[in-house]
Amino acid sequence: MIDEAVGPSEPAPTADPRVFSTVGPELVDAVRAARPRRIVLQVPAGLVRDAHDLAAHLRRETGAPVDLGARACFGACDAPSRDEAPRADLAIVLGHSPIPNVADVRTTFYVEMRSSRGDVRAMAETLDAAGVPKRLGLVVSVQHMDLVGPLSEELTRRGYDVLVGRGDRRLAYPAQALGCNYTGAETVRETAEAFLFVGTGRFHPIGLAFAVDRPVWAIDPVQGSLEPPIDRASLVGRRQLLVATARDARRWGILVSTFAGQMRMPTALALQERARARGREAEIILTDRIDPRDLVGRDLDAYVSTACPRIALDDSANYPRPMLTPPEFLMALGELPLEPYRFDTFH
Ligand code: SF4
Questions:
Q1: What is the CATH number of the domain that holds 204?
Q2: Whose CA is nearest to atom 5 of ligand 1?
Q3: What predicted TM-score, i.e. pTM, was given to this entire model?
């Protein structure tokens, strides 16, 4: 059976007029109808090679001037700000869905670059052969969202209990993975024996493993390859070790990003208050994109990042001092226990 939000043949909702599957005629028609004076096109790192051809295509098809944002875009959280593209009245963001509770700073079209490639029967056979548990939570990157229905249907036919969770207002779709928010998975965690991530790379399996204490399998729908569960104990153990090294830090930097979808100033102020109550110094440091070079040479012992939680979790080795997430910071202050480990969900 399929539990929770999505039936087997129900397509993922795409009623949002800002959302497009690919760079196709629908997008071109919508851009023409919007009659922009200037467009800013922002692409994720994986599409940089195609960025100039895409800009030329949009320019040719719509007749509007197109500028390219040089900064890679990691999510709908860091779409070009007004300062970055002051003359653009339309942004086109490739590779991401909108974040429903983050307001656009200008008219913005999201091109999710969806792909329905993937043989669901072969995928299900692979899961069967590997003995993946039958009560299975499904989590999918937005590019492969169209596989949720067919894969759920195929797995259900084979006796799986497919669990698809609907997350909070930061997620546009049931089953959706966002690197900072796995609340959809969390809603079905109690019932699920394991989770299956459908997509490529280790970014989401790692995030999901931090967020839910269940085995996380990962299948690449195009290659058909299945990765065994991430070693959650070792991921969490490394973070707990880092928390321990920061316990005696006296002078803290609290990093706040000014990107529209990464800004958590109220959290930063609350952390500053907690630090001071515990006799620590804590300075708020403002930036848009957090860059290790901006932190070199500062007289600080450790940092807590209130921006994208994956900066601390995935990139902390790049920083000159320990960098913790907000829950880890509270662990270091002794205000939260080390167990159970708490993922820094960005709501
Ligand atoms: S905050 Fe980080 S994980 Fe979340 S959408 Fe932005 S870049 Fe992705």
A1: 3.40.50.11850
A2: 75
A3: 0.93
